[in-house]
Task: structure prediction
Amino acid sequence: MCGRFTLRDPRRVKFDRQPIGELFKVVPRFNIAPSQDVLGITSRDGEPDVSFYQWGLVPAWSREPKGFINARAETLQDKASFSESFQRRRCLIPADGFYEWKRSGKSKQPYYFQLRDEATFAFAGIWDRWQGNGRSILSCAIITTTPNELLASVHDRMPVILDQSSHRDWLNEEARPAQLTALLAPFPAKAMKGYTVSDEVNHASIDHEHLVEPCEAKPILQPTLF
Result:
Protein backbone atom coordinates (compact mmCIF):
# COMPACT_ATOMS: atom_id res chain seq x y z
CA MET A 1 0.00 0.00 0.00
CA CYS A 2 0.97 3.65 -0.02
CA GLY A 3 0.14 5.38 3.25
CA ARG A 4 2.38 8.47 3.29
CA PHE A 5 4.23 10.50 0.67
CA THR A 6 6.06 13.77 0.13
CA LEU A 7 5.98 16.78 -2.16
CA ARG A 8 9.09 18.60 -0.97
CA ASP A 9 9.41 21.04 -3.86
CA PRO A 10 5.98 21.82 -5.38
CA ARG A 11 7.54 24.37 -7.72
CA ARG A 12 8.90 21.49 -9.79
CA VAL A 13 5.45 20.04 -10.52
CA LYS A 14 4.73 20.33 -14.24
CA PHE A 15 2.38 18.90 -16.84
CA ASP A 16 3.75 18.87 -20.37
CA ARG A 17 6.38 21.36 -19.17
CA GLN A 18 3.71 23.72 -17.85
CA PRO A 19 4.44 24.81 -14.24
CA ILE A 20 1.63 23.71 -11.94
CA GLY A 21 2.98 24.00 -8.40
CA GLU A 22 3.98 27.64 -8.85
CA LEU A 23 0.47 28.59 -9.93
CA PHE A 24 -1.18 26.96 -6.93
CA LYS A 25 1.33 28.11 -4.31
CA VAL A 26 1.48 24.63 -2.78
CA VAL A 27 3.60 24.50 0.36
CA PRO A 28 6.34 21.85 0.77
CA ARG A 29 5.06 18.69 2.43
CA PHE A 30 7.14 15.95 4.07
CA ASN A 31 4.48 13.67 5.54
CA ILE A 32 1.26 13.74 3.53
CA ALA A 33 -1.26 11.43 5.24
CA PRO A 34 -4.69 9.98 4.43
CA SER A 35 -7.68 12.36 4.74
CA GLN A 36 -5.44 15.35 4.00
CA ASP A 37 -5.73 17.41 0.83
CA VAL A 38 -3.43 16.51 -2.07
CA LEU A 39 -2.80 18.09 -5.45
CA GLY A 40 -4.44 16.28 -8.36
CA ILE A 41 -4.17 16.89 -12.12
CA THR A 42 -6.80 15.92 -14.68
CA SER A 43 -7.21 16.97 -18.30
CA ARG A 44 -9.97 19.07 -19.82
CA ASP A 45 -9.95 19.60 -23.56
CA GLY A 46 -6.30 18.64 -23.59
CA GLU A 47 -5.31 21.21 -20.96
CA PRO A 48 -4.34 20.51 -17.33
CA ASP A 49 -7.11 20.97 -14.78
CA VAL A 50 -5.72 21.14 -11.25
CA SER A 51 -7.66 20.75 -7.99
CA PHE A 52 -7.17 19.71 -4.39
CA TYR A 53 -8.55 16.30 -3.47
CA GLN A 54 -9.11 14.65 -0.12
CA TRP A 55 -6.86 11.60 0.00
CA GLY A 56 -9.27 8.72 0.47
CA LEU A 57 -11.68 8.07 -2.40
CA VAL A 58 -15.36 8.19 -1.43
CA PRO A 59 -17.54 6.65 -4.18
CA ALA A 60 -20.42 8.88 -5.24
CA TRP A 61 -22.96 6.18 -4.33
CA SER A 62 -21.59 5.57 -0.83
CA ARG A 63 -23.99 6.17 2.05
CA GLU A 64 -21.23 7.51 4.28
CA PRO A 65 -18.09 9.52 3.41
CA LYS A 66 -15.65 6.68 4.15
CA GLY A 67 -12.65 6.67 1.83
CA PHE A 68 -10.19 4.24 0.26
CA ILE A 69 -6.62 5.59 0.15
CA ASN A 70 -5.42 2.89 -2.28
CA ALA A 71 -6.90 0.86 -5.14
CA ARG A 72 -5.26 -2.32 -6.37
CA ALA A 73 -4.40 -2.27 -10.08
CA GLU A 74 -5.42 -5.91 -10.47
CA THR A 75 -9.04 -5.33 -9.36
CA LEU A 76 -9.78 -1.80 -10.62
CA GLN A 77 -12.27 -3.00 -13.22
CA ASP A 78 -14.00 -5.47 -10.91
CA LYS A 79 -14.64 -3.55 -7.68
CA ALA A 80 -17.67 -1.30 -7.65
CA SER A 81 -15.84 1.25 -5.50
CA PHE A 82 -13.29 1.88 -8.25
CA SER A 83 -14.50 0.64 -11.64
CA GLU A 84 -16.42 3.73 -12.77
CA SER A 85 -13.66 6.09 -11.63
CA PHE A 86 -11.11 3.95 -13.46
CA GLN A 87 -13.14 4.25 -16.65
CA ARG A 88 -14.08 7.94 -16.40
CA ARG A 89 -12.21 9.79 -13.65
CA ARG A 90 -8.45 9.33 -13.65
CA CYS A 91 -5.89 11.77 -12.30
CA LEU A 92 -2.19 12.34 -11.68
CA ILE A 93 -1.08 12.87 -8.08
CA PRO A 94 2.26 14.72 -7.92
CA ALA A 95 4.90 13.51 -5.44
CA ASP A 96 8.66 13.24 -5.07
CA GLY A 97 8.90 10.37 -2.62
CA PHE A 98 6.91 7.98 -0.46
CA TYR A 99 7.25 5.97 2.73
CA GLU A 100 6.80 2.26 3.26
CA TRP A 101 7.19 0.09 6.35
CA LYS A 102 9.03 -3.21 6.73
CA ARG A 103 7.61 -5.45 9.43
CA SER A 104 9.98 -7.37 11.70
CA GLY A 105 8.13 -9.23 14.42
CA LYS A 106 6.03 -6.66 16.26
CA SER A 107 8.02 -3.67 15.04
CA LYS A 108 7.95 -1.80 11.73
CA GLN A 109 10.83 0.14 10.23
CA PRO A 110 9.93 3.03 7.89
CA TYR A 111 11.79 3.51 4.60
CA TYR A 112 11.77 6.42 2.22
CA PHE A 113 11.76 5.83 -1.55
CA GLN A 114 12.34 8.28 -4.38
CA LEU A 115 13.70 8.43 -7.90
CA ARG A 116 17.48 8.22 -8.18
CA ASP A 117 17.67 11.82 -9.38
CA GLU A 118 15.14 12.89 -6.71
CA ALA A 119 12.87 14.34 -9.41
CA THR A 120 9.17 15.01 -9.03
CA PHE A 121 6.89 12.30 -10.46
CA ALA A 122 3.21 11.39 -10.56
CA PHE A 123 1.23 8.54 -9.02
CA ALA A 124 -1.61 7.05 -11.06
CA GLY A 125 -4.82 8.05 -9.32
CA ILE A 126 -8.60 7.92 -9.62
CA TRP A 127 -11.12 10.38 -8.22
CA ASP A 128 -14.81 10.86 -7.46
CA ARG A 129 -17.19 13.43 -5.97
CA TRP A 130 -19.46 12.53 -3.05
CA GLN A 131 -22.41 14.65 -1.97
CA GLY A 132 -24.57 14.24 1.09
CA ASN A 133 -25.76 15.95 4.26
CA GLY A 134 -25.03 19.31 2.74
CA ARG A 135 -21.42 18.36 1.99
CA SER A 136 -19.48 17.87 -1.23
CA ILE A 137 -16.22 15.90 -1.09
CA LEU A 138 -13.79 15.71 -4.00
CA SER A 139 -11.56 12.75 -3.23
CA CYS A 140 -8.94 10.46 -4.74
CA ALA A 141 -7.06 7.20 -4.31
CA ILE A 142 -3.55 6.11 -5.33
CA ILE A 143 -3.32 2.95 -7.41
CA THR A 144 -0.92 0.26 -6.22
CA THR A 145 0.71 -2.67 -7.97
CA THR A 146 3.17 -5.47 -7.27
CA PRO A 147 6.58 -4.28 -6.02
CA ASN A 148 9.75 -3.99 -8.05
CA GLU A 149 12.99 -5.60 -6.84
CA LEU A 150 13.81 -2.66 -4.58
CA LEU A 151 10.45 -2.50 -2.83
CA ALA A 152 9.98 -6.27 -2.61
CA SER A 153 12.40 -6.53 0.31
CA VAL A 154 10.24 -4.12 2.30
CA HIS A 155 6.59 -4.58 1.24
CA ASP A 156 4.42 -6.61 -1.12
CA ARG A 157 2.87 -3.55 -2.80
CA MET A 158 4.05 -0.25 -4.24
CA PRO A 159 2.28 2.80 -5.69
CA VAL A 160 2.07 3.07 -9.46
CA ILE A 161 4.53 5.71 -10.64
CA LEU A 162 3.75 6.83 -14.17
CA ASP A 163 6.57 7.63 -16.54
CA GLN A 164 6.24 11.21 -17.79
CA SER A 165 5.68 9.97 -21.33
CA SER A 166 2.49 8.21 -20.21
CA HIS A 167 0.83 11.08 -18.32
CA ARG A 168 -1.39 12.11 -21.23
CA ASP A 169 -2.19 8.47 -22.00
CA TRP A 170 -3.45 7.98 -18.44
CA LEU A 171 -5.68 11.06 -18.65
CA ASN A 172 -6.91 10.34 -22.17
CA GLU A 173 -10.71 10.09 -22.02
CA GLU A 174 -10.74 7.87 -25.12
CA ALA A 175 -8.26 5.31 -23.77
CA ARG A 176 -9.39 1.70 -23.61
CA PRO A 177 -9.09 -0.37 -20.41
CA ALA A 178 -6.38 -2.58 -21.91
CA GLN A 179 -4.30 0.49 -22.77
CA LEU A 180 -4.68 1.84 -19.25
CA THR A 181 -3.90 -1.38 -17.39
CA ALA A 182 -0.69 -1.71 -19.41
CA LEU A 183 0.51 1.49 -17.70
CA LEU A 184 0.04 0.08 -14.19
CA ALA A 185 3.33 -1.79 -14.00
CA PRO A 186 6.01 -1.53 -11.28
CA PHE A 187 8.39 1.36 -11.88
CA PRO A 188 11.93 0.16 -12.77
CA ALA A 189 13.93 -0.53 -9.61
CA LYS A 190 17.17 0.70 -11.17
CA ALA A 191 15.64 4.18 -11.48
CA MET A 192 14.84 4.37 -7.74
CA LYS A 193 16.59 4.45 -4.38
CA GLY A 194 15.49 3.88 -0.80
CA TYR A 195 16.78 4.07 2.76
CA THR A 196 15.63 3.87 6.37
CA VAL A 197 14.23 6.94 8.11
CA SER A 198 13.09 7.87 11.59
CA ASP A 199 9.87 6.41 12.96
CA GLU A 200 8.73 9.98 13.62
CA VAL A 201 7.03 9.67 10.24
CA ASN A 202 4.48 7.46 12.01
CA HIS A 203 2.98 10.63 13.49
CA ALA A 204 0.94 12.53 10.92
CA SER A 205 1.18 15.68 13.03
CA ILE A 206 4.92 15.85 12.28
CA ASP A 207 5.58 17.41 8.87
CA HIS A 208 9.21 18.50 8.73
CA GLU A 209 12.09 18.12 6.31
CA HIS A 210 14.14 16.06 8.78
CA LEU A 211 11.72 13.15 8.22
CA VAL A 212 13.37 12.33 4.87
CA GLU A 213 16.89 12.26 6.28
CA PRO A 214 18.51 8.79 6.49
CA CYS A 215 18.62 7.34 9.98
CA GLU A 216 21.40 5.17 11.40
CA ALA A 217 19.77 1.90 10.42
CA LYS A 218 21.43 0.18 7.47
CA PRO A 219 19.88 1.18 4.09
CA ILE A 220 18.52 -1.55 1.90
CA LEU A 221 20.69 -2.70 -0.98
CA GLN A 222 20.24 -0.85 -4.24
CA PRO A 223 19.78 -2.77 -7.47
CA THR A 224 22.73 -2.56 -9.81
CA LEU A 225 22.48 -0.42 -12.92
CA PHE A 226 23.85 -3.15 -15.17
User: Anything to note?
Assistant: The chain has a mean pLDDT of 92. The first helix runs from residue 21 to 24. The helical segments are 21-24, 83-88, 149-152, 167-171, 177-181.
